[in-house]
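Good morning,

Attaching, inline, the backbone tokens for the sequence recovery test we're adding to the shared suite. The designed sequence is right after.
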């Protein structure tokens, strides 16, 4: 198949290099009958997937095992899909070009609800039965994890095994169970029962859900076999210094979305932004030490040749030794002209010293996230920053030569008014005004302020999980109002498609009845729904109608605190009581302190015996 694809298929598609898998540091092994073949599947393009840090970690971790060969597979672009279908060829793993249905496992990472349709498309292209109940004995086990797995129910018809939490803690245990299972004469069900006993593993086939016929809400969720636990506890790594991180990563021959080294310096976040799912599900905060970070980054630079390193986390400026770390890294980086970028800085965590250090090698645009245009709304969402924080930061940035500032906001947040929308434009204007206060000789010669406003999507395991979303028309009206409120030509404005955000909310808060909708949308050709040129709301509307399901039931409806939510069987360590209290404080616009300053008893300290949360 390899030669046929290279000679007859790849010359006809764009970016053929992304379908070959022979990049620097790609892993190639000699297969044998005892080897576990694992296809790490990213349900988006190569350029997007190759930027994903989790894939790099698990690709390295699995390939460290002598009897496991982890390969990569990405969603083929439409031209490649057309050629595969035309020639009746299966989707394949890049490294060996083995058909997807010949692997032992196909593991999807669930980063974004709008990639769900790509999962079904990839399974079909790989000639794997879509529904788990219809898979034959020889077909792969389809496994999934990632942030969207914290509500696995919309995909429960198609996924055999979900991993809840940090996969490094679980994946090798699943592989060990598979080794033992292969020694027996057991069937697929036997292995799934073995997997279900591993903490952090959810096998949806072993659970049943009941619904109220009148209201449609869930009335019961329970396991149907003894091996399946009633509650699935998320897994997390306690000591990140001891956690696996590769010394080398695959280096693409083509440009990717984040074409640089991305190195994780800590996990979790103690800020408690009420809209932020990651800030809740990745608790507790755990840091790597400065020596560990420096050693690993040096190894990655040597093995890849990259000239930029991004320090990854949910809020990089909150790293306890951030200034010392940056000074040390910049001193190392200057030798090889390697730049350091901080992609997730909070406004109040910036300092003059950090700005000066970052700009020594290469100056890029400054990205900040006020999230809301007024202080009242920032208190509602518990952002914990003020307008004064923002103005102090941009003033310092302008004095040091920055000219391009991007500000991230959300619209449609609970309790929002048009005055809050206008506040976004006002804040952008104040940033422009701050630029002109700087002496002409010392400021950057050009100014560009970009206001980016995404649409709020209520997510599971957040204080806003009970809150309904704005309607698509309400979003459009707010977008128009914000655009009309911007008067200065130095300010540009970008926004998200309200239809995409609506569908994202449907699947974020959905239950397993949505499997039928996904299947019908797939049959209509829906894929790459996160890409504007391929998202087709009309097809989705038809799919919902044919399935007899109202999408507004999931996206727009406020939910009672005592309602059984589709994801309630998962224990993240952050209690429902805490989330409810935070929701009530949001209604009163009352803030909650940063974790290191004052523990708010979210529940994570009691979640794992002996664990001591460090904020």
């Amino acid at each position: 198949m390899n030669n046929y694809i290279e000679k007859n298929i790849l010359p006809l598609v764009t970016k053929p290099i992304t379908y070959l898998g022979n990049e620097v540091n790609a892993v190639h092994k000699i297969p044998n009958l005892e080897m576990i073949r694992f296809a790490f599947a990213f349900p988006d393009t190569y350029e997007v997937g190759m930027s994903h840090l989790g894939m790099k970690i698990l690709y390295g971790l699995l390939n460290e095992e002598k009897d496991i060969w982890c390969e990569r597979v990405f969603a083929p672009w439409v031209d490649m899909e057309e050629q595969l279908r035309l020639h009746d060829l299966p989707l394949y793993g890049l490294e060996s070009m083995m058909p997807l249905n010949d692997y032992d496992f196909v593991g999807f990472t669930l980063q974004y609800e709008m990639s769900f349709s790509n999962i079904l498309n990839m399974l079909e292209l790989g000639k794997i039965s879509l529904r788990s109940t219809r898979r034959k004995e020889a077909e792969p086990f389809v496994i999934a994890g990632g942030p969207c797995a914290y509500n696995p129910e919309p995909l429960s018809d198609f996924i055999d095994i979900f991993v809840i939490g940090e996969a490094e803690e679980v994946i090798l245990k699943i592989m060990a169970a598979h080794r033992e299972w292969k020694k027996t004469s057991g069937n697929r069900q036997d292995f799934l029962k073995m997997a279900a006993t591993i903490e952090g593993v959810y096998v949806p086939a072993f659970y049943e859900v009941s619904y109220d016929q009148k209201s449609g809400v869930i009335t019961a969720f329970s396991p149907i076999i003894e091996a399946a636990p009633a509650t699935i506890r998320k897994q997390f790594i306690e000591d990140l210094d001891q956690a696996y991180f590769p010394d080398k990563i695959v280096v693409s021959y083509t440009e990717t979305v984040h074409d640089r080294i991305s190195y994780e310096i800590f996990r979790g976040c103690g800020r408690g932004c009420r809209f932020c799912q990651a800030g809740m599900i990745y608790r507790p905060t755990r840091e790597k030490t400065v020596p560990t970070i420096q050693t690993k980054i040096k190894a990655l630079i040597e093995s890849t040749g990259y000239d930029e390193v991004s320090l990854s986390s949910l809020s990089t400026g909150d790293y306890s030794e951030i200034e010392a770390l940056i000074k040390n890294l910049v001193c190392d980086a200057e030798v090889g002209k390697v730049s350091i970028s901080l992609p997730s800085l909070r406004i109040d965590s910036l300092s003059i010293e950090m700005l000066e250090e970052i700009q020594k090698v290469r100056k890029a645009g400054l990205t900040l996230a006020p999230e809301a245009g007024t202080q009242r709304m920032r208190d509602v969402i518990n952002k914990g920053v003020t307008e004064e924080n923002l103005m102090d930061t941009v003033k310092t940035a302008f004095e040091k030569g920055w000219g391009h500032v991007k500000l991230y906001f959300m619209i449609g947040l609970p309790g929002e008014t048009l005055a809050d929308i206008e506040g976004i434009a006002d804040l952008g204007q104040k940033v422009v005004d701050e630029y002109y206060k700087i002496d002409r000789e010392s400021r950057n010669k050009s100014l560009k302020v970009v206001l980016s406003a995404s649409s709020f999507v209520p997510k599971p395991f957040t204080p806003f999980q009970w809150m309904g979303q704005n309607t698509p028309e309400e979003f459009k009206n707010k977008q128009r109002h914000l655009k009309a409120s911007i008067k200065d030509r130095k300010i540009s404005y970008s926004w998200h498609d309200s239809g995409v955000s609506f569908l994202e909310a449907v699947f974020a808060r959905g239950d397993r009845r949505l499997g039928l909708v996904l299947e019908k949308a797939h049959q209509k050709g829906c894929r790459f729904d996160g890409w504007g040129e391929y998202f087709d709301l009309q097809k989705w509307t038809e799919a919902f109608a044919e399935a007899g399901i109202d999408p507004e039931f999931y996206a727009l409806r406020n939910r009672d605190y005592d309602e059984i939510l589709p994801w309630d069987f998962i224990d993240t360590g952050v209690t429902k009581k805490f989330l409810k209290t935070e929701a009530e404080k949001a209604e009163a616009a009352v803030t909650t302190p940063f974790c290191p300053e004052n523990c708010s008893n979210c529940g994570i300290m009691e979640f794992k015996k002996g664990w001591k949360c460090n904020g």
